[in-house]
Structures are given as C-alpha cells and as structure tokens.
Amino acid sequence: MDDAVERAAALREYAEQTASCTKCALAGGRTQVVFGSGSPDADLMFVGEAPGFHEDQQGVPFVGQAGKLLDRLLGGIGLTRADVYVGNVIKCRPPGNRDPLPDEIAACEPHLFRQIELIEPRVVATLGNFATKLLSGRPAGITRVHGHEQEVTLGSRTVLLYPLYHPAAALYTPSMLKVLEEDFARIPEILERAIESPVVNDDPAPVIEAEPESVQLGLF
Asked: What architecture (CATH level 2) is domain 3-201?
C-alpha cells in the first residue's frame, strides 16, 4: 500500500472518529460535523473559519455563495476542489453563524492539526482572520498580512502559510474581489516553490506587528 492510499485511509478513519465529537457545546446544535473535503494527498490546503447553514446541512465546507466564489477563484488558477483540500478551524456550525468562541477554537484545534499532519500539505492558505491568527500564532489581522507567505511550524510540519481574505469578504465588499484574485494569482508560483524547495524547521517565522483591534475582528 503506497503512502497516498495509507494517507487517505487514515484521514477517512479520523473523519469517522470526529463525526461523534462532543468536545464543546457546538455539538448540541449541529446537524453534522463538517470535517473537510478534497484530495487527502493535496499539496495545497485551504483553512476557513467555520461551517455556515448550507455546510451544516450538506456536511461539506464552502458550499454556499462563498464556496462558489472559492471555486471560481480556484478555476482562475487552473485548479478544482479535487486538487486541493478544504477545511475549517471549527468543524461545527456556531449558532446564527456567530464568531467562534475561544473555548470552541481550543477544543477543535487538535482536529485541524491532525488533518494537516495526515494530509502533509506544502502550502496552507488561510481564509480570513480566525484561521490566519490561529495558524500563524500571531495577532496581526488579515488586512495587514494577506498575500504575504510566511514559514510556520504546525505540529511537526513546517509549511508555507499564505493568508488570504475570506471569500465572503468579497461578497460583502466587491472591491475586495480584485485583491482576492491578485492574491490567488500568486498561488501557483508559491506552490511550485514549496514543492521544489520544501521549507525546514531551522528558520523562525517572521515577526509581524499587531494591528489595531478595530480591524482584527470578523472576516477582514
């Protein structure tokens, strides 16, 4: 059995275990756990915030309007969902699509890190503030760091972290669509570089200054 087959089996097994997770109160209001979808052998992984209504119903991340925009952005760089892996920081829908709470993020974080460990992506693209702050380990919001890759160590794996605006941001603020398209256009080059010259654990992630709290909240 080759590595790809073993990786897919391990990810599927972990998804089955996660389906009955009760580590936080969100378990009481969900329709189902939204584990993630895509290629278990992906070099590029996207991490968003949390499932919304449609995701909770269908069990697949990014199936609403933001998901349609994500598909369009992927198509613009010659990729489909089958080429990448898509997940969220939180696997269960927060009531009313509110922001995830700190204890919910803490409870779900091990699931995300285990996904990353199993998939072994070279590039992790974070969509929005929550994923960017969690995986970068730094307080700087997406307004400041979008489109600028950085090396980070996630568990035992060092990857290129590439922060992006959440696609929903472009739905609310159409002028951001151009920014998203420009940032997405850099993905093929970043991915090629990460594959040809894998990052190692020797170099610390760059220090990024925090920005005012007023622009740290939400999707922007």
From this structure: 3-Layer(aba) Sandwich (3.40)
State the Cα–Cα distance between residues 49 and 129, nearest whole angstrom. Answer: 8
Provide the 3-class DSSP secondary structure of residue 161: strand
Q: Is 3 exposed, middle or buried (0-12, 13-18, 19+ CB in 10 A)?
A: exposed
Q: What is the pLDDT of residues 93-139, one digit of tens each?
A: 999 989 999 999 999 999 999 999 999 999 999 999 999 999 999 98
Domains in the chain: boundaries: 3-201
Do 127 and 220 meet the contact criterion of CB atoms below 8 Å apart? no
Say how far apart CA 212 and CA 220 lie, in whole Å: 12
pLDDT for residue 112: 95
CA distances 188 to 23, 40, 109, 131, 151, Å, are: 37, 19, 28, 21, 17
The distance of Cα 208 from the centroid of its chain, to the nearest Å, equals 20
Do β-strands 157-164 and 150-154 pair in parallel, antiparallel, or remain unpaired?
antiparallel
Q: How far apart are CA 46 and CA 33, in angstroms?
A: 18
Predicted confidence at residue 219, as pLDDT, reads 46
pTM: 0.88
d(CA 154, CA 167): 24
Residues of the chain with pLDDT under 50: 201-220
